[in-house]
Design brief:
There is one protein chain. By secondary structure, this protein is an alpha/beta fold. The chain folds into 2 domains: about 5-40 and about 110-235, 3-Layer(aba) Sandwich (Rossmann fold), CATH 3.40.50.1000; about 45-105, DNA polymerase, domain 1, CATH 1.10.150.450. Helix content is about 45%, strand content about 10%. It is built from 11 helices and 6 strands. Helix 8 links the parallel strand 2 and strand 3 (about 150-155). Helix 4 (about 65-80) crosses helix 5 (about 80-90). The longest helix has 15 residues, at about 45-60. It is globular. Residues about 1-20 have low confidence and may be disordered.
Length: about 240
């Protein structure tokens, strides 16, 4: 896949003024899960959102016309719909997570050998950092054929139901991954709002799924497969 002129500019920028990160080798890469490890056009996240609405209607008996705005409000205020439902409706998190992720993943996801080869080529420790739960993450990774590519999973339960973009979630992720210095870390995510706190803490941030520059991201790439082109320094200090 060809990358755009913005990505090429970012690579040039890194070569010219990225001496700090070149001198300091990266040791840990954090990857978001949904819409980052796979294209956001396959319909899975839309199906999950639909299941969220079904849960709020069937389990909580909320008025159907109120659900879209309420879900969006909780997402914007608390980072996830789940967190808002926990605070305002005392939902059981396990019940909610099992319900909204009860989908035939094989209908939406397919292994991509190029993504697998990329992940295996990266010498750093690789962690999933997701607002979903480990059960869903494990199923996604297995369906994509990537289960053996990661050191571990930082999920919403491990974070005590904190979630990105709460800055405390990033500190907890660093601790769980055994990292002290975010300057040694890269976060790859499809959501700019999740990258902004990480960049403020000193992570190098990569916006996945876009060629457009964004203030929250050091780099923007259309696909994970474009990562080596904008960050060749990941392969240094082997």
């Amino acid at each position: 896949m060809r990358i755009g002129t913005q990505a090429l500019y970012q690579r040039d920028w890194a070569k010219r003024i990225g001496d700090y990160n070149y001198a300091m080798p990266y040791t840990t890469l954090f990857f978001d899960l949904d819409d980052t490890l796979y294209p956001n056009t396959n319909g899975l996240w839309s199906a999950i959102r639909e299941r969220m609405g079904d849960y709020m209607r069937e389990r909580l008996h909320l008025p159907p016309d109120d659900i879209p705005d309420l879900r969006q409000t909780y997402f914007e205020t608390y980072g996830t719909t789940l967190r808002g439902l926990q605070i305002h409706h005392q939902v059981d998190a396990n019940d909610y997570l099992a319900y909204v992720h009860d989908l035939p993943l094989e209908k939406f996801l397919h292994p991509d050998p190029q993504v697998r080869a990329l992940l295996l080529s990266l010498p750093q420790r690789k962690w999933i950092f997701t607002n979903a739960d480990t059960d869903h993450a494990g199923r996604v990774l297995a369906t994509l054929g990537l289960a053996d590519c990661f050191t571990g999973i930082v999920d919403v339960r491990a974070l005590g139901y904190l979630c990105k973009p709460d800055v405390k979630a990033y500190y907890q992720a660093l601790s769980l991954a055994g990292e002290r210095d975010p300057g040694h870390c890269v976060l790859l995510d499809d959501a700019p709002r999740n990258l902004e706190p990480a960049r403020g803490l000193g992570f190098t941030t990569v916006l996945v799924g876009s060629q457009e520059a964004h203030p929250s991201a050091n780099f923007s790439i259309p696909s994970l497969k474009d990562l080596p082109q904008v960050m060749p320094q990941l392969y240094e200090h082997r």
